[in-house]
Amino acid sequence: RRGASASAGSRLVARRAMRKTAEMSVCRQVEDAFGDRPKPRRLVESKDLVTSEQRDALWFGDRAWREVTWDDWESHHDAFYAFTPEAFAYYLPSVLCLSSKNPDRWFWPADALMQILDRSPVVEHWDAFLSTRLVGLRPAEYEALKAWLLLLTEHEANASGEALGRAFDTVALLQSETERVRAMVGQARNKS
User: Fold this and answer.
1) Of 78, 151, 158, 171, which one has the fewest beta carbons inside 10 Å?
2) DSSP code of 124?
């Protein structure tokens, strides 16, 4: 009986170590994929009247994505919706890494990202927010997003299994749409 208890304890320790390795490996994959993205010149679209969402986004201006903390995002979560497409792609790895290190905790920007990715499989039904911010990522960045979603499927703290599945499918469609758009641009350039 004592041997069974020690064996169960060893399995629990091994499972926790494997989970921690998976969490760190997702963050490493995110850093490798997004790490060389330049800091955006503009964080928000120019407007005379600055909204509270834009104020949240402007707060990030002096910070590299690796410096942004969980508490920073919680205090300035509306930035997620106000960022320009370049700023969105630049700060996205912060959300992915922070939430992958704490996949059992609800995290506002990770939840927002899940809602954005939980879309129709019909590209024509996507809104401009999704199309302008997530079409055009690099292949490694899409793979990092998929790895993040797979990690979350083990925890389901931020979304149900069905929502995570739809989000994974959306990322695959985003990747296909990006390849299609790049092929069209390449063909147009070759004709010029």
Assistant:
1) 78
2) G
